[in-house]
């Protein structure tokens, strides 16, 4: 079951990306990506929880019975989320307010429980933490990409409100590539979130297809029927 | 068999619950002060926008008076509300009145209106509305500075017929393509100032509440 | 002697998709004429821009997908989408807005689903709603009908209109105003009679707003023509109009200050007739069976009224149609007609008994 | 005036019937070669009963019925059997099937004919045998052996006999001309049929309003009978059996059932004529009336054509010009199929040879996407939703296809005819029906294979256990032999023991018996199924046969059971 | 909408508004972005979508009630608001487990249909979302339950219609990169566009 | 008691969470015991869909074991005799996307049946032992024949035959088994210009 560093990395960031491939954690993905700042905030929070929960779950994986496994995992995740929630409240209150209930809802981000069940409960601590980090990073990157696209297309800005995360000095990171008056509201509103996410997924499919055709032209064909077994056993 | 299963699982879960609870209460203990502070700050910031901190030295959050019931309908309040009073050196300097317009294009527009002692507008902020994005939402300061046009206006320095959009011969701009929202805001402002006229004696006569730590 | 093998039936009634679309185009003519008379050059410019953009967008996508461009363009569906979209946009909107709307309809709503016949949503309405939501300022300013223009003011001429559309000047005051439904909506608190008296838009009209009523009558005529030519069945449009009329009758309230307006106004104002005969009837995105279309039409009629009366969009046809599109596949599953030899209608989700 | 019911849908393609009605029924010279496919009907192929080189007489049986729903084939003219082999036949697949070829001697020597003008003296069964023996199959469509249809009609009470003279397909006028010229004989045929059916309560002739002369002729011929001539509005496909039944009686044939299930039998007017010839004149079915039409033919008219005549022979005699012809169609334009070659022979179900010119039936325009316009649904006589069927046929969603009643589609082609996007809808349905039937069959055989596999697994396990037991016994025996003194007696004893151990143990015997019991039971089930089927649709003879085999199977089961019980005891 | 006179009428009106609001205007899936994973994941087949809808609606309603009780009777009196998340998630897990057992016991047939969907509901944001929102909004018991129920109906409505639509798309000739999840997203986007028409309704 | 709790927040947290934990754990423990064994009906359903050729090309000794393995999460594209249609059917059952056939297990070929050239057969019975469905008749030293209707075409009998007298013959389609094929959907085939449209038609 154990995978190498490279595999875990590419899985998390690309091949098995929670948002684009597994289609998990969609709620925050679509709900908080109207700006980069929001996306980054929630992405970081999720990343934190993922690494933490994966680590703990991997630590305790041999000590819980099947019947209570799930509730224990949920409890681990929930306590991490609650900690994060309290920290965010204490230090980035405004951002916390904008993200609204999506911070506590990290608990039900299916990707997290999915990783705990699917990976951390079967692997060593180091790998589990790495997997959590990579999955979280993959999720974060998609969140930020979506946020950037929507912000840019919708209100013609980039990096607005970054001061909520990085303090007042981030105020002047703001860029407005399309001038002052640009706005294309649909991308800020819910429909735009779906549309841009759909296009992102299609883009990934396209890249994958291109990579695949390129790889196929290099790869030799597998041996056909190599894995056959005899169903009728030994014949004497 | 079944009993032992129940017991074992209950114990396991309880153990985890114990650890979790400990951890969480620990973190809570560490952060609750900061959180309370942040919450207060957030609640204040709306008020502070209307009447900035250099103009007063009391805690406006705590220095409040309920709006008398007979004025509720004038202010558009259905469940009543509290007027916040700003004082400097214990002397009242202004009040902040909550008010709601029901004439918005797609629903209510809730505002906070700061009124100076002399009945002039100290500041207006829309705190909640459902106007059309891109059209009526220019009442937000984030989107447009229109709302600042009211500062300094009072019923005495602006005659009633001038409390209207320019299109209707008034003093205030309308938004391109939207006159309903500005009209609603203006009308409600007039109502609020009227209320202030009628109730200011009472408001300013009231004793101040004990001063607490306010600004940091 | 050998012969080519072709399956039955041999022969065909010579009807073609392209011809159906052409008929739809012809049927829009009366409405188009009335609209351009009432609202000036803006309508025609919209139409021209939208059709051009629709054809170009369609051709571009076909090229990217390596499909035969000529073959697909000859079905005229892109032109129909363009024309219907052009007819629904307010006159004298900036050129880029028309382009954005058209590109959304053709590229996102139609071609991403595989082109003609595959799109679950009505392309023209998707385009319309996208710009309505994104650019509300431009989309809520209508031109005043010709008969209401103040003394000495006239609609901008062709050249002037073009400069308005392309150079981004805003039309002069007096030429623009609200639509009757919009007016009605934000005159809440007035008795209906008062609204009618106060606004020339109503007071000099016979039933539903100057300019608009005649445009609706014209679209009704065009639609009846299509009905006669059996391009569509009566179920969709009639169901929609009847529901709309019934709802407005129920809540008419005698013209009190809460009244959402009379049945006559709802039937002949806004995009009611245009919607009923040209949008609801879009075969691709509506329900398939006759019973399904009855339900589909009724649903749209109901939603039009609900949104008009209590929502924040004065002319709800576009939203109602999209919501109807949304429900159509579901409706289809439960309105399969009774087949010869069966006692009961079947649900499309029914399993074979023997399996 | 009888009340008529209106079917939904339907289309009105140009009729194109006048051109072939200008002349009466003509006769063609006998071709030098006749090719007779052994399967010209629904059901199993006939079996040849002649050999190459045999000389046959006109009307002589050359292949006899064999299997379910079969019909014999007779020599259409006298001559020599020159081949019995696979030949391309008139079939949409363009594939080959077994045919008998006769080289005609142009002498037309008949066999002796035994007519039964007094058929009323015979029992219905006997008359129906006569019909079967004459090789009469339905001439109106599917080619269902008529005797089988009538027999089945007799097992259930039939109250209505419907004669289908609608001829709703464009171009075809074979029934029309037949009625005009030989109405009296048709009425006689109807008499025979109603005798076989034990005198149904009402007899209706359904005929479309576009055949005034034929209607007059029929009315004239029916004057003194109880037969009602009912004129139905002209609309394609009111000639479809289900549609006609509904138009005339307002009753629908329940899905998956037959007209006889609601007490009706529907027979084509040409079939009635053929039955008259078979019973009253004793002539087997060796020729039929057929329309030859289309602009690529110089002459358009109806002929009485010998079954087996190559199409090319007919075309030659009709000033056919190849280069004018866009396609060659057997049957009408709506349901007929195109022939790949003109060498194919005419069969019993051939109503028409249509050779249209390029302008008459031009090339199909390319298929465009379905716009769900619903014109097809309006045209469908079965109230299906052709556009949905097409949609699901494309996504191969068998479940949904069946839920949309794909199998109630009569393949009339009305939907394709009106489709503005030129979609060959019917072909999608045919192919989907084929796929569904194939996958049903595959499921059945998969289930059988699984059963056999699992059975084998059980058997092997048992055998393995039995072997284990035996091995153990042998080991014990040898051990005993070793430990005890090796006296001769002991050796013999041990040998005996070993032999005994080697002999099939009771367990093994039991397993064997159980196996054969299972097999016998399976066979019994199968036989019972077949019997039920035969009861539903087979002849009395078949029923008896199946009954016997069920009995046999049951005995076998009993026997095995008994032996098993003995063994256990 | 309709002016009510008696107290009873007013109550009914309030309930109707809550329902309309939670089903249409603030639809959990299309407007509030909650419960999207099952929305995307279990919408390929109409039958499964119907099963999922039924199960989710049931759990949502029950959770809304149970979490109200936990919140009002345990967390609020003890000042443990920060334990809301964890408390509610435990409640949800328990409710799901209870539902599973209950259905299994009472109707094995229903269990066969819904069984596979039940565990998925624990990680459906909408469930926790309803509990949290209700707690934030300080609703009473009846209102909480209604919000839960309305959320469930709204979820079901959208999910079922969406799956019918996706079944229709199965035969569409969609450009390859957009096949599957991408076109589903875009369809959901257009649906959410349509739902914007409900804004301002109440 | 209550007062103690309200005053001591940490204690309150402990008590309430532990309380919930105990309650919940107990419930689960009860459920775990009560509903322990559950047969997996999905295996049966999967097995129904597999072609039952019993050929072992999937790498399992027969179709049932492969069905079990799919239920345990194995890939669904390993059965060449079933081909794409079986993969699609399984994908539909499991509500996942349908992959294409894994070529390492073989290719989808037209169906065949075994045929024993009887004059060459030496009656060694090896093929009988090899046949998973008992489709070969015969006894030692007697010539053998294949019951065509029962042969699944798995070709397992071919290799053991010492004299190579077994051929796998494609099932010939006769006029009864012929089925209409789906029309070529021209508008998906044509490349670029409309003139080619007519050519592909002819
Ligand atoms: C979809 C839509 C949304 C609108 N939203 C607003 C709004 O938020 N605020 C507003 O004042 N008017 C709104 N309007 C109405 C204005 O467009 C209306 O025509 C205008 O306020 C009347 O202004 P006028 O007197 O300048 O013509 C909306 C209209 C439409 C069609
Ligand atoms: C498999 C099969 C079995 C049939 N069995 C009977 C029957 O038992 N009795 C009967 O009256 N007709 C029977 N029919 C005939 C049909 O009712 C119908 O008359 C015949 O198929 C001709 O169909 P057409 O409408 O396609 O020409 C059978 C048809 C088929 C295909
Ligand atoms: C669409 C369709 C049209 C048909 N048209 C006729 C017709 O015009 N005349 C006719 O005799 N049979 C027609 N048939 C065949 C009849 O359904 C039916 O099989 C036939 O009348 C039975 O008589 P038979 O067994 O004597 O051939 C048609 C069948 C179909 C499916
Ligand atoms: C009666 C009729 C009505 C139509 N209405 C519309 C419409 O409302 N919007 C649109 O984009 N296309 C419309 N079309 C054109 C065409 O069906 C549409 O472009 C398809 O939805 C594209 O797949 C219509 C076509 C017909 C025949
Ligand atoms: S007639 Fe053709 S285009 Fe119209 S719905 Fe039927 S199949 Fe589609
Ligand atoms: S071919 Fe089938 S679907 Fe088409 S019209 Fe005839 S019965 Fe209806
Ligand atoms: S490959 Fe397919 S047919 Fe062969 S054993 Fe495996 S599942 Fe059965
Ligand atoms: S006869 Fe040969 S090919 Fe046929 S099933 Fe048996 S082993 Fe397989
Ligand atoms: S993230 Fe909301 S349901 Fe999965």
From TrEMBL, chain A:
The complex is composed of six subunits: RnfA, RnfB, RnfC, RnfD, RnfE and RnfG. It holds the Pfam family Rnf-Nqr. It is found in: Cell inner membrane; Endomembrane system. Part of a membrane-bound complex that couples electron transfer with translocation of ions across the membrane. NCBIfam families: PRK12405.1, rnfE. One of its GO terms (biological process) is electron transport chain. It is an enzyme of class 7 (translocase). Residues 220-236 have a biased composition (Basic residues). InterPro entries: NqrDE/RnfAE, RnfE. Its EC number is 7.-.-.-. It comes from SAR92 clade bacterium. Residues 214-236 are annotated as: Disordered. Belongs to the NqrDE/RnfAE family. It comes from the Bacteria. This is Ion-translocating oxidoreductase complex subunit E. Its main location: membrane. The chain crosses the membrane at residues 20-50, 70-89, 95-113, 125-149, 182-203. Keywords: Cell inner membrane, Cell membrane, Electron transport, Membrane, Translocase, Transmembrane, Transmembrane helix, Transport. GO terms for cellular component: endomembrane system; plasma membrane. It is a multi-pass membrane protein.
UniProtKB/TrEMBL annotation, chain C:
InterPro entries: NqrB/RnfD (IPR004338), RnfD_bac (IPR011303). This is Ion-translocating oxidoreductase complex subunit D. It is an enzyme of class 7 (translocase). Belongs to the NqrB/RnfD family. The modification FMN phosphoryl threonine is found at residue 179. Part of a membrane-bound complex that couples electron transfer with translocation of ions across the membrane. It is found in: Cell inner membrane. The keyword Plastid does not apply. The keyword Phosphoprotein applies. NCBIfam families: PRK00816.1, rnfD. Its EC number is 7.-.-.-. Its main location: membrane. It comes from SAR92 clade bacterium. It comes from the Bacteria.
TrEMBL record, chain D:
It is found in: Cell inner membrane. One of its GO terms (cellular component) is plasma membrane. Residues 527-569 are annotated as: Disordered. Its EC number is 7.-.-.-. Residues 536-548 have a biased composition (Polar residues). GO terms for biological process: electron transport chain. Residues 553-569 have a biased composition (Basic and acidic residues). [4Fe-4S] cluster 1 binds at residues 370, 373, 376, 419. Residues 360-390, 399-429 form the 4Fe-4S ferredoxin-type domain. PANTHER family: ION-TRANSLOCATING OXIDOREDUCTASE COMPLEX SUBUNIT C. Belongs to the 4Fe4S bacterial-type ferredoxin family. RnfC subfamily. This is Ion-translocating oxidoreductase complex subunit C. It comes from SAR92 clade bacterium.
UniProtKB/TrEMBL annotation, chain F:
GO terms for biological process: electron transport chain. This is Ion-translocating oxidoreductase complex subunit B. GO terms for molecular function: 4 iron, 4 sulfur cluster binding; electron transfer activity; metal ion binding. Its cofactor is [4Fe-4S] cluster. The gene is rsxB. Residues 38-96 form the 4Fe-4S domain. [4Fe-4S] cluster 2 binds at residues 121, 124, 127, 161. Binds 3 [4Fe-4S] clusters. The chain crosses the membrane at residues 9-32. The keyword Ribonucleoprotein does not apply.
